[in-house]
Structure formats: structure tokens, C-alpha cells
Amino acid sequence: MVAKADIKWSELRFGYIKCDYRFISHFKDGKWDEGELTKDDYIRIHEGSTAIHYGQQCFEGMKAYTTKEGKILLFRPDRNAARMKNSCEQLLMAVYPEEKFIEACIKVVKANERFVPPYGSGASLYLRPYLIGVGENVGVRPAPEYLFGIFVTPVGPYFKGGMAPCHFVISEYDRAAPRGTGGVKVGGNYAASLKAHKVAVDAGYADCIYLDPATHTNIEEVGAANFFGITADNSFVTPKSPSILPSITKYSLMHLAEHNLKMKVVEKEIPVTSLGEFVEAGACGTAAVITPIGSITHEGKKYAFYGEGKEVGPKIKELYSLLTSIQTGDIKGPDGWVVEVK
Ligand SMILES: *Cc1c(COP(=O)(O)O)cnc(C)c1O
Fold first, then answer.
1. Is residue 29 part of a domain?
2. For residues 200 and 167, what is the distance between their CA atoms, to the nearest angstrom?
3. Among 109, 128, 155, where does a domain finish?
4. Substitution site in 185, 186, 194, 337 for ligand 1 pocket (most atoms within 8 Å of beta carbon)
5. Catalytically annotated residue among 63, 85, 185, 315
6. 310 is catalytic
7. Does some domain include residue 176?
8. How far is CA 215 from CA 31, 179, 241, in A?
9. In a structure prediction context, what are the per-residue pLDDT tens digits for the chain, which is 342 residues long?
């Protein structure tokens, strides 16, 4: 066991703290180099890099947790590796091999062991893998070279003092096109969402909810998280659309809802007008795990969920507890969900 960094773990928020090492690998002349751990938190790239001009880049987000026994676990890194491969293929970027992706995650977490928050602190180590197009260029074409990196930073629990319902408003903007890049984790979707987010926050909401970009009738994403609703007859319902980013948290919750909580799990179109069917609603993703949705406002009409939008419902509490217990090793999840860093 290494001595932990001098950090007040329980006071951490979702911010950047410089850790000791980051992993970097370069793709040149058709192949990836071995990659290395470096102390430098700056990268030097060519001014014509496609990542700068044409948005040729993608990223991932994942967490490492400390167990009661002091082991360090990664949650489903194979899913992040596969999703990044998918993002790279969509943007014609060199794919970083999935096995090597997982190895690099383990390597970088191990090198920064003193920054992995202790068990019971509510905090975790956030990993940010990214892959960008670099090299001498000016025209619109795939980059001649690529850079794959992973940096880490300890982050606090999303909700200090327990989960609290958040209030959302339907956006008038789209984050992605119907046949565009909504289904892959690329920065362009985020650049397109910054203004929509600001408009929602300025109007007093936590964030905005996007409708499907083709018909603007169905619920799609909740900011940068996936949506789910729970019906009175115990169904877990989540939207089906090619422009939604497939959240690993959501697919994990769907599995747990079906197998552990014996709920019915349904992926289907969810018209805004049908929101009244849900007794609980939530947004899910790596950062917050689950954000309970208190209410959704659309064209002046407010749809409130559990406890008139003021309380966290029992199913969300159960799902949250189940998932986080698996992530921190308190209970055993399905085979292969956690990978030990050793
Ligand atoms: C990353 C992301 C999510 C959440 O995915 P997880 O794998 O659960 O972290 C949801 N929506 C968008 C748009 C995202 O970029």
C-alpha cells in the first residue's frame, strides 16, 4: 500500500487535480508506439491537427474505486474500449487496440495509486481517455497521425449530502443530427450542447433535455446523460434512438433492473406527452451514476415525478445502491464487470 496523497477526500468535487502520471501513445506510419507514462500535463501538437480544426477526436469517461479490503477496481473498462473503437471508426481515426486500452487504464491507475480515493469516502478516481487527430495538415481529411492519452483525477460524489432530485427543461436545440454523431462519444456533440445547457441553467434548471432531432416529439438525452423512467407497474423504460449515446451505466442498470430487481425492461420511443406514465425518472452516466429527475418542463407544462418532484423514489434508491455496491466491490456483480488493478 502506498501512502495516500494529502487530499481532503470527502470535500472533493468534480474538478481537475493534477496527478503524478498520464499515459500517452502516438500513432505514426500506420502503427501505435508502445506508449509511456509521463509527468507532463501538457501535450504539444501540430497547428494543423484535425482535432483542432475539424473536430476529429473522441473521448471516454470511467472510474476506479477502492474496495473495503483496499483493492482497486475498474468498472467495465472493456465497454469503454469497445465504445472508443466505435467512435474512432465513425470518425475515420486509428483505433487504439481494446486490450491495450484496458492495459493502459490499469497502468495509469497503478502509477497514480496515491490519488485513488479510499473506500467509504464517496469519492473515486475519474479516468479520461481521449484520442485525437494530429500531425501536419490543413485540408478536410482524416489526420496522418493520432495521439491516444489517458489522464486521471480524483473526483467527489456528484451529490454532496445524498441524492437530490434535479429539475430539467426541454431544449429548443438539438445536440446531434438524426443520422449524425449522436451515438458516438465525440467532442462535437458537446460543443453543440454548451449553449443549450447555458440557456437551461440561466432559466433556473439543472440542465436541458433534448428531443429526438428528426421529429422533436420523443425524449432523447438528459444533458450528457441517458434518460430512464419507472412506471407504476415496475417497468424500467428508456428511449430507443440511434442518436443517443449508449451509456454503459444505463445498460448496467437495465441488466440489474431485469435480473436483480425482476423489473420489466423496455427500450422504446418515449413521447414527451407520455411522461405522466412515470412515477420515477432519472438520468444516468459515469459522473453522477443516477441523477433523480424531479420534474421536466415542456412548453410551460411541468411533469413532476416522485413525491411531487421533491423526493427520491424507492426504485432509484435501490438501483443506485446496487450499482455502487458492485462498483466498490461490496457485492459481486455479473462476471467481468469489475477488473482489479494490480
Ligand atoms: C458519456 C455520455 C453518457 C454516459 O455514458 P456512461 O457510459 O454511462 O458514462 C451519456 N450521454 C452522453 C451524451 C455521453 O457523452
1. yes
2. 10
3. 155
4. 185
5. 185
6. no
7. yes
8. 43, 13, 12
9. 689 999 999 899 889 999 999 999 999 999 999 999 999 999 999 999 999 999 999 999 999 999 999 999 999 999 999 999 999 999 999 999 999 999 999 999 999 999 999 999 999 999 999 999 999 999 999 999 999 999 999 999 777 667 899 999 999 999 999 999 999 999 999 999 999 999 999 999 999 999 999 999 999 999 999 999 999 999 999 999 999 999 999 999 999 999 999 999 999 999 999 999 999 999 999 988 999 999 999 999 999 999 999 999 999 999 999 999 999 999 999 999 999 999
Structural domain total, the chain = 2
Q: How far is the CA of 150 from the centre of ligand 1 (A)?
A: 17
C-alpha distances (whole Å) from 328 to each of 25, 72, 76, 169, 252 are: 29, 8, 12, 33, 15
Largest Cα–Cα separation, the chain: 59
Domain hosting residue 212, numbered range: 166-326
Whether 209 is in the pocket of ligand 1, judged by its Cβ within 6 Å, is: no
| Ligand 1 centroid, distance to 4 Cα (angstroms) | 30
pTM, two decimals, is 0.97
Whether residues 150 and 173 fall in one domain: no
Measured from the CB, is residue 285 less than 6 Å from ligand 1? yes
Find out whether the beta carbon of 193 lies less than 6 Å from any atom of ligand 1: no
CATH number, position 55: 3.30.470.10
